[in-house]
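Because discrete structure vocabularies remain unfamiliar, we reproduce here a specimen of the format, pairing a chain with its fold in token form:
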Amino acid sequence: MDVVVVESPAKAKTINKYLGSGYKVLASYGHVRDLPPKDGSVRPDEGFAMDWSTAERGESRIRDIAKALKDADGLILATDPDREGEAISWHVLELLRQRGALKDKPVRRVVFHEITKNAILEAMRHPRDLDRPLIDAYLARRALDYLVGFTLSPVLWRKLPGSRSAGRVQSVALRLICEREGEIEAFIPREYWTVDVDLAKTDGAEFTARLAELDGKKLDKFALANEATAKAAAEKIGRAAFTVRKIERRQTRRHPYAPFTTSTLQQEGSRKLGLSAQNTMRIAQRLYEGVDVGGETVGLITYMRTDSVTLSGEAIGSARRLIERDYGKSYLPDAARTYKSSAKNAQEAHEAIRPTDMFRRPEDLRHLREEERRVYELIWKRTLASQMESAVLDQVSVDIAGDGVGLRATGSTITFDGFLKLYQESRDEESDKTDPSADDSERRLPQLADGEALRRMGVHPEQHFTQPPPRYSEASLVKKLEELGIGRPSTYASILSVLQERKYVRLDKRRFIPEDRGRIVTTFLENFFERYVQYNFTAKLEDLLDDISEGKIDWRQVLTDFWGDFSRAIDGTKDLTITQVIDALDEALAPHFFQPRPDGTDPRVCPGCANGRLGLKLGKFGAFIGCSNYPECRYTRRLAVENGNGDDSVAASGPVNLGNDPVTGMPVTLRKGPYGLYAQLGEVEGEGKEKTKPKRVGLPKGWSASELDLDKALKLLSLPREVGKHPDSGLPIKAGIGRFGPYLQHDRIYASIPADEDVLTIGLNRAVDLINTKTERAAAAKLRDIGRHPKDDKDVALYKGRFGPYLKHGRTVATLPKGIDPETLTLEQAVELIDARAAKGKPAKGKKGKAAAAAPDSGAETIDIKSAKSKKAKTTKSKTTKAKANNDDSEAAPKRTRRAKAVG
């Protein structure tokens, strides 16, 4: 018998079943040991020797493995097929050797890229030794992250009170977010105009063209800089007669996308499914380790931490057979498609993320959790589409001539959809969505001929303003990090999570906004440790670490070169005073915290004493804005941008006038009520019974007063809006804000809009996805239709609820009593239960309780909840303990929680 060590207990059970009685498979539960979180765990002066500590959980796992080895013939290390997996195998082996548990028993290493019987048996036939270069790369990364965290973080604590730890890659990612915010704040919108012209053929076919040439000169984006020039151009167009001058037709091909890598899966999971990088990886981990399929636990996808875009010959063959069977030969290219990774060193695994069985379609996996099914479907479609034929598009550009005026119309049609029949990647979030010409190529044009006369129908000058670059989303930040060569895909999810846990950034409408604490830390590092937050330095270090994993360079030499310069930089801050730090931060952050005021007054003048100067101050609990006349003047304010239009200013000064509605002429105001901020159109009119209330709408959760302008307020007041038509039913999908927040409505289906998505901008694809998800959940919960109620002919149906089966008729919900079999339930029995429940009615609202309606899918009867007074626990603050730096960039870093002991 051989002992096999894997990482996950779920995987251990499945693999043991495939291998049979000749093997005993045990789980390590991840890393069994790590660097202890204290100074001296890595000793540069001793050749970067490392002290390792084994936690109780790891100790227990090693005891179990050592015990099993007593009667075993050998040890097989089968942890994950990446750098961290190799490191776990090495740690297990080292600990077993220290215990003398191995003796002369053979040790082999195997890797499973997918948890299927054939793949596991094949891997067992090809064992190897531990990959020493991969282990060295792990040691180098672990030591680097430790040295940066435990050396730089104390400098932050001493020189920048209230700050948290600083990580090697985390700090660079934070800098990206802060720099983008600085670009947005410094951005000055530039006005420009376009002029669109509605044209018609003699047969009545209409289309739209855009002004491209005026008085013989081609127009650039800013040629029409104001309303006067745009109107002058429109008047000239109004006097011109138009004919088709030139038609250009060309055929283009769009090729399918490569199969998923770790980073592209994270990006599409964010854009298409609204999942965080961490959630995407957690779901993919479950799909890889195995789920129940027809009574058998099987891995549905290959290993999900990979930089590779290649597919095995077996996978390509399966995909091609499936394409030909389900879509026809026209969708199958003559030769199989191969892809090459753009990553500098795709060493994490040998294959892209793909289904283990291409013929296992998403619709066949109805037993999966909804989020698992959606991620599997994304991977399945992307993999299959990568082997399909290219799409063919006919693009048409038409030049139209008038008297001193030139117009241009562009359009395209898909003549063969190819891979687009199955999969289309989400639009790049970094593209300028406000560009009025961005979607011109998607227009469809009628058949036109050279010299054909056209009739002018209408002229539409339109004002535009350039837009600042968008804030990073998880998807675009991961993409940017990968482009710069910073970090590795396996660490991105943890890096983004740590930035939020540290309160350095926050996610708002799925976009990263730096907190002031994060901006201060970044500014400090840029001023005093500039080299170590430079993008090219961090990327070069990543290349060196990759060279270590390939055996090209000694890991200790890389650490020696890094540590020499880094330790000197740390020593250079010993004589740095708090005053010097404050002065540097105050100067660098002044444009952010002290923005120019509309009335031209000095934003630094203290409102408390009128002659003091406001500036950045550092206190025991962090940074704040204070007066230079302290202690005579004790004016302070929180560290936040002063915009004069926050929630407090609305409450203090009353309604804020945002402008007038151009349609009704009524004023649009921002107000604060007992339930928060809201926008209002017009004023209260009349008295008594004749009194009419103006239209009001509350600001969605997460919106601040400073974000609301007239345009956004009018969009809120115009809700609900039509997002588009559902492609299946043809009925409209509407987006609005209701009693419980933003929602989507299609026919009789209502779906909540997630908190991190915008009710004003949510698109049709995402709306359809949310509506379909809600519909599928409802369908999954519905067990069967019972029939129609004889009194009103409305449906009576049986549902599966959280607390058991229940009946639903209109708004009446009745729990199915124990003893009644849902399979044999008759309409007469159902009607009796429904009528009995309806007869009870709702409990009357009283002083001691309120009526609470049961959720439609809960199966619970209406209950009366009695209020109870909670006792206040007297607690005192625990003494502050010395903070310890966490390693923020390594997957191997253990998760630590800080516990405060309550006394009283």
Notes: The first helix runs from residue 9 to 19. The first strand starts at residue 2 and ends at 6. Residues 431-441, 641-649, 843-904 have pLDDT under 50 and may be disordered.
